[in-house]
Amino acid sequence: MLITGGTAFSPMSGTAAIGVVARNDQGVVVAALSAPISACYDVEEAEARAILEGLQMASELKIKCVALESDSALAVDASNATTRNHCQFWSVYKEIGLTKSVFSSCSISYTRRKLNSLAHELAKRASVSGVYSRWFDLVPEDIASLAKRDLVNIVYV
């Protein structure tokens, strides 16, 4: 299962939003999430929270082997670290570590933003609307069309 996470961040207001997309081994979207998050004053924290939400989604889907991708090298490195992170939101990374342990296989890696554009689109939507949305199996047609465009980027890069 491939999980991608993305964020939309507004440092002035301290608000952010996340988008998470879960794809099966054929690249079909099996779940997605679009959610605003409050009290977030750092883009790395928003990215870490997107990673955590992606792992939690995979756990809910009862997935055993997860590959999660993020376009934040800082958040990826901290999520894979074996020592305590001393940033102000280290508890998010601690929760990521605990959540990773429920999978038989779990990798968190860096990807270019172009390859997780659907997750970023979902984050932008939540940023504008302020609405939390989750989809399992059937995603709305507008998201499905974005997913097809995103899949072309993944396949041909």
TrEMBL record:
Signal peptide coordinates: none
Checking Pfam families in the record gives: RVT_3 (PF13456)
Q: Which residues form the RNase H type-1 domain?
A: 8-126
Matching entries from Gene3D superfamilies are given as: Ribonuclease H-like superfamily/Ribonuclease H
Tell me the GO molecular function terms.
nucleic acid binding; RNA-DNA hybrid ribonuclease activity
Q: Which CDD domains match?
A: RNase_H_like
Q: Which InterPro entries match?
A: RNase_H-like, RNase_H-like_dom_plant, RNaseH-like_sf, RNaseH_domain, RNaseH_sf
Entry protein name:
RNase H type-1 domain-containing protein
Organism in which the protein naturally occurs: Lolium multiflorum (Italian ryegrass)
